[in-house]
Amino acid sequence: MKKILVTRKxxxxxxxxxxxxxxxxxxxxxxxxxxxxxxxLSKDCDGILSALTDKLDADTIDKLPKSxxxxxxxxxxFGNIDLEAANKRNIAVTNTPEVLTDATAEIGILLIxxxxxxxxxxxxxxxxxxxxxxxxYLIGKQLTGTRLGILGMGRIGKKISKIAKSxxxxxxYHNRSKLSPEKEDGAIYHKKLASLLSVSDVLSxxxxxxxxxxxxxxxxxxxxxxxxxxxxxxxxxxIVDDEALIDALDRxxxxxxxxxxxxxxxxxxxxxxxxxxxxxxxxxxxxxxETRTAMANLAIDxxxxxxxxxxxKNKVN
Length: 317
Ligand code: GLV
What we know:
Blueprint: E1 3-6, H1 12-21, E2 23-25, H2 35-41, E3 47-50, H3 58-63, E4 70-73, H4 83-88, E5 92-94, H5 101-116, H6 119-127, E6 147-151, H7 155-166, E7 170-174, H8 181-184, E8 188-190, H9 193-198, E9 202-205, H10 219-222, E10 229-233, H11 242-250, E11 254-259, H12 270-273, E12 278-280, H13 289-309
Parallel strand pairs: 1-2, 1-3, 3-4, 4-5, 6-7, 6-9, 7-8, 9-10, 10-11, 11-12
Helix pairs in contact: 1-13, 5-7
């Protein structure tokens, strides 16, 4: 029986399934393992079912026991894993695409609505019973007719676009390459990021974090946005230079932000906390029972496929 280290506690049904398939080393206290502990616990393991909270950098991967052949990441993003280091060690890396598209897009839309309609301020006032209705109370930005810039029109970006279109938004996007007209579904392509930003009344960051996208929303690029734009991020904190975004909020260049992901999470840059127009969530993108169950099942399927065939359709390296 193959031996698998499962670095984070999963939902019960997923752990039950794992128990029938493998000799598993579970994390029943859901402790966040240090890199050292993760290496120690991987002893004699054939694979690791990892999570986005595990920093599998080159040094950690280099020190993994030789027995480890696969890192099955319980996430669509795999920015927590150094793919080059995994390649050097001939370790397969897999992810969980598709199954979390809808749940993550729902949060993407919540960020847009929450930021545009001043939900953070509204919740605070309602909880304190400190408000009275008036014609001009907490007036926000209506979405109908506004331009939504999608940075990264992958599965999640497309689903956000579809919902946003039904809310009357006009969709623009930037990708490395233009999609087919069928996949674009009426969205307007911008070859250059600057061009997309210049028409983004609302920006939705949906692209993966990679060496190319780290801090691409920065002091310089934020200047392309129309004044009073709204910036939302459902992808990864690494894509945004926090200081630059907070400065843009301070200057009212940016009207509001809607964020689910952060550099160095769970710690947030304190600059966001002082802005009442910051609608912030604690990385809830895929957090529904259906989706978390499906993600873990897919991470297990990936292990199964890999151990049976030596290949995996969700291999990313
Ligand atoms: C969630 O953030 C994921 O990448 O699955």
